[in-house]
Amino acid sequence: MRQMLRKHLGSMICAASLAAFSLSAAYAQDAVRIGYAVSKTGANAGGATTTTIPNYELWVKEINDAGGLKVGDRQMTIEVVEYDDRSSSEEAVRSVERLATQDKVDFILTPWGTANNLAVGPIFDKYGYPQIAGTSVTDMAPKLAARWPNSYWLLGTGGSYAEGLVDLLVKLREEGRIGDSVAMASIADGFGIELAKAGRTALQGHDFKLVYDKTYPLGTQDLAPIVNEVKALNPDVFIAFSYPPDTLGLTDQARVLNFNPKLFYTGVATAFPLYKDKFGAAAEGVVSLGGIDPNDEKVRAYIARHKEVVGKEPDRWASFMTYAGLQALQQAIEKAGTLDKEKVNEVLRTGTFDTVLGQISFDNKSRQVPNIFTVGQWQDGEFVGLEPADHPGAGKLVFPKPAWPAQ
Amino acid sequence: MTDRPVIAIGLGALVFAALAFVPYMVDGYGMSLAIAIANYTILATAWALFSGPTRYISLATVAFFGVGAYTVAVLGEVLPWPVVMLVAAINGCLLALLVGLSTLRLAGIYFVIFTFGLTELIRQVVTWYEVKVTSTVGRYVFLDIDQQAIYWQLLGVAALLFLSGYLIGRSRLGFALRVIGGDEMVARHVGIDTTRAKLLLFVLSALFMTLTGAIMAPRWTYIDPAIAFNPQVSFQTVIMALLGGVQRLWGPLLGVIPLTLLFDWLNAHFPNHYLLILGIVFMLIVYLLPQGVAGALARLRGLRSRKERASAAMKEARQ
């Protein structure tokens, strides 16, 4: 046996390496190389593994299962090169630089979050890669689009979300369903501050009375004092521009302390499936950013596919922008019929794409999707988009928020 | 390596002059690796400049680095670049003076904890200021400074750092610090103004860290307190310096280069198991190289000379 093994080992290795070689040669010809560096570890990992990575995996699998991308008259499967930016700007910069110059990938998908997308912006721009960011909320979006002409900011500006909410409040007040008093808590970090600032300006502009307007530091564990203090003020509306841990914490505390304002709004993670799983019927009536049209066929199909492939549902906010961005990229490549980045950029700039967000185009100065849901609400186990109210498929607000179910 | 300062400085200048041509030979990724190495070379060497002889373990590296980065974030678009750098340097020195005066009387673990707390304190103060006063926690740095320019600036700062380190090592100040590292009580008894000596070096070391932060800031476009004051930078600096060895000026370099390359290689080949493998590597390093690379090299040389001595003795005995 040993003899035999020794005798045949050489030829076996030869054959194996030949097979491997021909396999890689075949790959190099028919594959589109797509790279991404996202935060698999560190502070951003929670967001990246909820929103970004599942959609990238879903998209690649769908295309490869269908036989690949149609590039001209060729059918090319996708080959992925992935790195972990460890939630650090410097690592993100280096990893994308590596994707561009070492791996020489054909296209690069964007990292998770505002900070890392801004950090890698100059590199995408330098090498002419389209940067389709689905997880960056920044008021600078128009300025960034002017600076990096191939960048797209699908999640919009912080201001648009705050203003959408205030529009809703103004309507409620006109109908005489709420008074003037609003309580607002926000996390002392980029997103929370940006939204709170925009919200404050809009609320004061409409003569609302901010009875509570405080920030709390990143990583605050004990949220009961905030809820207690706000409850004592008895406002009609409670707004929290919060991050995932405190979104869950505030909801939990409000429920425990039985604080049930007519409108209860929490921030990031409210639209996550995790929120529904954790709170069940108690999620009913909670308002937040994002939202979808549950009657839209494409939306329903996307949620089902996401669940089937990734094993969990997508969040009802940035997942949709992320996936729509991927669909736009795919259609732009197929429409251009080439992997040439400049030609694909040209199509992205001027074309219209059929996505899970509907027909979208980036044919505007700010490079954003003009009409996305900015305010949504949990209604019967689905996070329904409410504002802008003229958006096709916009739902009606359930008001007032039902009482917390008994625990 | 040599006792003739003219030769040593001349050699150093030649090496740095050669390194200045790196941007013409490597691609964008090579540049970003070179920047990472230059960045940590300055941080680790500046750290060792103070912590090597005095044996004070400082975790405040990123406090100074972040102050530099924030100075650029605030003033980068308002003032010309050299002035911004000057302001950053002044800020870093003032902070170091303040911290040094209040803490260099602490020793051992108290100093370590204080420096770590200091970083957190500054981060919270900056956050508080941004939230309360400017109402924006992230800042945008839109400066057209490309990779080459960042690299050359880092290289210039590194050259200055090595020159100052070399000169200090040969000066009375350097000698005083080595005495303090050996035994602070003795140092005081032989008439060394220990606080003044430590303070001087602490400020100098902080100056280089601050400049590095300022130079690196335009690379990220977006800066918030969590990015600028990331404690990971302080830890990484200490690990690299200790791996290389802090008793010699060039010691940290021996830690920075292999570790930077290792981090990068691990991330490229094991993106999903990076931290796991990194932990194992750190444990191996601590077990196998307790004295750092420089220490291991010295021991190797010692072994060899002992062997030579032994064989010489054998020869003598035979004769």
UniProtKB/TrEMBL annotation, chain A:
Biological process according to GO: amino acid transport
Highest taxon above the source species: Bacteria
Signal peptide (UniProt feature, chain positions): 1-28
One Pfam family linked to the record: Peripla_BP_6
Residue ranges of domain Leucine-binding protein in the record: 32-381
UniProt KW keywords: Amino-acid transport, Signal, Transport
InterPro entries in UniProt: BCAA_transport (IPR051010), Leu-bd (IPR028081), Peripla_BP_I (IPR028082)
The family this protein is said to belong to: Belongs to the leucine-binding protein family.
Protein name from the UniProt record: Amino acid/amide ABC transporter substrate-binding protein (HAAT family)
Natural source organism: Pseudaminobacter salicylatoxidans
TrEMBL record, chain B:
Topology of this chain in the membrane: Multi-pass membrane protein
Entry keyword annotation includes Transferase: no
Keyword tags: Cell membrane, Membrane, Transmembrane, Transmembrane helix
Subcellular location: Cell membrane
UniProt xrefs under InterPro entries: ABC_transp_permease, LivM-like
Residue intervals passing through the bilayer: 7-26, 32-50, 57-75, 81-101, 108-129, 149-168, 199-220, 274-298
MF annotations from Gene Ontology: branched-chain amino acid transmembrane transporter activity
Main location: membrane
GO cellular component annotations of the record: plasma membrane
Name listed for the protein in its UniProt record: Amino acid/amide ABC transporter membrane protein 2 (HAAT family)
